[in-house]
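Side project, low priority. Logging it here so it doesn't get lost.
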Amino acid sequence: MSKSKEYSNGEVTIVWKPDLCIHSGICVKGLGDVFKPKEKPWIKIDAAGTQDLINQVKACPSGALGYYMNGEDNKEAESLETKVEVRENGPLLVYGTLHVTHKDGRQETKNKTTAFCRCGESHNKPYCDGTHVKNAFKG
């Protein structure tokens, strides 16, 4: 199981799973005052309001960022309407709740945003691991 780190402002807690991060930069571009990858700790949770934090976390294409509201028993973010986006030279992003059945029959539920590999080189198939950047994938 991958490690994770939590950052809380007292109202919401952001959960970061570094092993899932594909370094898309969407978090940094969206809330640059909060997500500062060259600093430690890299998430400055007090630099934005709770709703802005939640909205940005929901945009994470890899699932490396998640959140839960403090004091709530259910630590899963709400389901989103399903939509698909093809990223130029990058992964296929699927937004919403998905039930994924792997080739070995194992099943998992993915909430929020899931990035599927399009370049064929990911070491975490069917999910994107950012290899497309290193291999200069065009598509």
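Brief comment: Strands lie at 5-8, 12-16, 65-69, 83-86, 92-95, 98-101, 107-110, 113-116.
Revisit when time allows.
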